[in-house]
Design a protein that fits this description.
323 residues; alpha+beta; 2,3-Dihydroxybiphenyl 1,2-Dioxygenase, domain 1; eight-stranded mixed β-sheet; 6 helices; 16 strands; disordered N terminus; binds zinc ion
């Protein structure tokens, strides 16, 4: 096989189709649930536990069924101190909202547990930059071409409701290695550079296709904690595509985990050159594998390996409820 300059093998469609999910750390599960399900109006699609630490919740928010590219997830460790922003992390999680909705959002965030930081324009998109209750920085970017159906379960109309991710912004000391990975094996196109900010886009992702990199050569390393992103997951169609990409990454020298069953998708993880933890996850099987679409998010769901200690898990998890 020959690789073209933009990483598309023999002109085939790239294996990566944009973002799958973003996972971050929070300090209070109820405050986290309130902010993402009520203030931002995402659907609470899954209440489960951190499979590697089952005494902690893993909360998933997204569109009606949690399609890849809409899914924001949290490990809320009660009392977790705030982390510190810096290089080697996803510094901004970008959500897509309709054109003309930013005034609505500024008011709603400032009066519902969050804080508006700035507003601006980047690569032709107007956006508001804001923080959640833990200080996680997110952007709401106007995206008039976004055709995704929003979840309308909160008191937010379709002319303002979040569509899903627009993309992520990585903060890196030096973009070189990560840019090579994105435009090489991951098949992203370089869209442009404005000062220290460079934009990349997955050419076959209708939505959630953006990766921005902001370079901060003198920056300090980020420290994990509440309000920081733990990892970003990219999306492949199925397990065959995941195996193929895993082989390519391994051949290129990346230290990639084995395929891990996350119940709702299969995942592999590796450290990207700029220090950000990348995951690549499958579309299959999705969040309706253990609850009906109507019931999503209403029961504590446990993977088979933790079901036998359900009683113990339920006794240590703090009670949370969608009011
Ligand atoms: Zn993940």
């Amino acid at each position: 096989m020959t690789q073209t300059s933009n990483g598309h093998v023999n002109g085939e469609t790239p294996l990566v189709k944009g973002l799958h999910h973003v996972t971050a750390i929070a300090s209070d599960p109820q405050a986290n649930l309130d902010f993402y399900a009520k203030t931002l109006g995402l659907r609470f699609v899954k209440k489960t536990v951190n499979f590697d630490d089952p005494g902690t919740y893993h909360l998933y928010f997204g569109d009606a069924v949690g399609h890849p590219g809409t899914v924001m997830t949290f490990f809320p460790w009660l009392g977790m101190p705030r982390g510190e922003g810096g290089i080697g992390e996803v510094g901004v999680t970008q959500f897509a909202v309709p054109e003309g909705s930013l005034d609505f959002w500024k008011h709603r965030i400032d009066t519902s547990g969050g804080r508006v930081l700035t507003e601006g324009v980047g690569f032709g998109e107007r956006h508001v930059l804001a923080e959640d209750p833990d200080g996680l920085t997110f952007a709401l970017a106007e995206r008039p071409t976004d055709g995704r159906e929003p979840w309308l379960g909160a008191d937010i109309n379709a002319d303002a409701a979040v569509r899903g991710f627009n993309g992520v912004t990585l903060t890196l000391a030096d973009k070189t290695g990560t840019a090579e990975l994105l435009t090489g094996l991951m098949g992203y196109d370089h869209i442009g550079t404005q000062g220290r900010l460079s934009r990349y886009r997955a050419p076959h992702a209708a939505d959630a296709g953006i990766v921005d990199i902001i370079e901060d050569p003198a920056g300090r390393h980020a420290h994990q904690g509440a309000g920081r992103v733990h990892h970003v997951a990219f999306n492949v169609d199925d397990r065959a595509a995941q195996r193929e990409l895993r082989d390519q990454l391994t051949a290129a020298g990346f230290n990639v985990t084995p395929v891990i069953d996350r119940n709702y998708f299969w995942a592999i993880y590796f450290r990207s050159p700029g220090g950000v933890l990348f995951e690549v996850s499958t579309n299959e099987p999705g969040f309706t594998v253990d609850e009906t679409e109507e019931e999503l998010g209403t029961h504590l769901k446990l993977p088979p390996q933790h079901e036998r200690i359900r009683g113990k898990i339920e006794s240590v998890l703090p009670a949370i409820a969608l009011s």
